[in-house]
């Protein structure tokens, strides 16, 4: 293996916290310093869209090689495209997790999550296959998020030639932006950026759904220290992901990482203009829970109408591994999106 592949960026840890965990070994990745890229030694299992008549892949930005995976509810009568609805369905623009550096819309656990969500709510899901870091550091994923928002708006504008599933089944007045973990971070920034767009009346963003948002900061929190060696998201892994995702030279108090930063010149005050509802989901078994609670307080302080569901126990990413908790989550989402 070349020497440049072994030169991992230093993980910026606090002097008050120590751990022997090597996050690169844990995730089976190697950093290539010569071109700021990762060698991903293990492929995340994926599911082709051709395996399911109720999803399809659609190019988003050819230059950036991004796409969306569109899901509709699974019905017994939906084979051979004999799909019907009695009323138009809510639309969720969804961003997958993976710490900005792993996974895709085709990753099997993300595919299954979106498929189940589309059926249980029911709704249409536009799952965005955005660019990953460090090959494409932030704000690349945010830019891809806005491409997706604009793509949905363009479908709403084109009642004749727009994407058939959206044209036939989508209620464009009930669009939500959602993400899990790092995807929730992207969803938040996409929601803030969407405030600058003239989307209505063709497309109305009715709310944000932030499931265990991946956020950070330089100052350690109590939950990060308490769960420093968490088996799902140890502190060293969190630091490493931010080192790879943030713009070169930025620290964890950059606005992309730390939403507590309130700098008007960097868009902090735009949050106060947010009139859409926001649902924040978390659990006290997640090392990020203290940050998520403070994040909720900040949103409320800005006048944002926030609903929360904070579960006891659990872990980061628990809804992908516990079907019972996923079922409860989808029940909460169904209630949230049904409010007019």
From TrEMBL:
GO terms for molecular function: hydrolase activity. Transmembrane segments: none annotated. This is Alpha/beta hydrolase fold-3. It comes from Macleaya cordata (Five-seeded plume-poppy). Coiled coil: none annotated. The keyword Hydrolase applies. Residues 92-319 form the Alpha/beta hydrolase fold-3 domain. PANTHER family: ARYLACETAMIDE DEACETYLASE (PTHR23024), CARBOXYLESTERASE 120-RELATED (PTHR23024:SF546). Pfam families: Abhydrolase_3 (PF07859). Keywords: Hydrolase. It comes from the Eukaryota.
